[in-house]
# Entry
Amino acid sequence: MELRVLNYFLAIAREENFTKAAQQLHVTQPTLSRQIADLEAELGVKLFVRSNHSIILTEDGMRLKRRAQEILSLADKTKRDFLRKDETLSGTVSIGSGEFRSTEYLAKIISEFKRRYPLVRYEIYSGNAGNIRDYIERGLLDIGLMSEPIDIRKYNFVNMPVKEQWGVYVPDDSPLCEKESVAPEDLKGMSVVSATGDFNQSRIGKWLGEFKEDTSLVASSNLPYNQAVLAKEKIGVMFSIRLNCTYEKLRFIPLNPVMEISTALAWKKEQLFSPVTAAFIDFAVQYLKGISYNKL
# Structure
C-alpha cells in the first residue's frame, strides 16, 4: 500500500467522482480506476459503490478513509520534523491572495520563513476567492489567502488574525464625505462599482437589502485598484474592504450597519505537497497561532 495510492483514494472520496479526482490529481481516469481496483484487490474489500453520476464510500471505504487520513498526516508530520533541520531547503511556494489587510501577515510569514530558508522562492498570484480556489484545484497554486467561508470538506485552513472592514470609496468632493458612515438608504439613485460576481447574491447586494433596486451596478472588477480608477472618474461609488493604502482623490467611509469579513490561509486536504510547501504551511500555522485578533 503506497502513500500515493492512499492520496488517490482520498481524492476520490472527497470529490465523489473519478473524473474530477483524476483531473485534480493530473492522472488519467483509467490509471486512477486501475490503482483503486488494485487497492481493493490488495485489501480484499470494495471501497466504493458506483452509480452513473457519483460514488459513495462503503463501510470498509469509510474505515479506510479514517486510517488513510491518519497515515498521510503522520507521514507529512514526520517529513516536516526533518525539514526543520534542513537550512538548505529550496524550491518554490505558489500562493494566491486577495487584496486584504491580512496580506500584511502573509508578508510577515514569508519574511520570517525567508530568514530560515533563504533559498526558497515565492510566486504570488493576485485574484479573488473564486480565481484562487480554481487555481488550487487545478494544481497551479499551493496555498490561498481568501475570504471565508472556506469549504471544510476540501480544505484545511488557518484563520488570519484581523477582520476586514467593508465600506465605500467616493471622490473627495462627494456629498457622502460629510457622513461618518454610509447606510443603504444613502445610496438611493447612485451608480455602483463592485467586485466581479453575482451582485444580487453578493455581500453588498444583501447589505443593500430593499434599497438594492434603487442603485445601479455600472461596472465590476476582480481587484480593487481597477475599481478605484473607475470611482475616481466618478463612474460610481466603489464598494471595497478598507486597505492599508490610499487612493488619490478618494475617501473611505465605513458601512452602517457594519459589515466585516474574516480571511484564512487555506490548502487542499490530503494533498501531497513538495517538501518546501509542506514546511511553509507548518511554519505559517505555528506563526499565526501566537497572534491575537486585530493586531494590525
In short: The chain has three domains: 3-82, 89-162+262-289, 164-260. The radius of gyration is 23 Å. The longest helix spans residues 59-83.
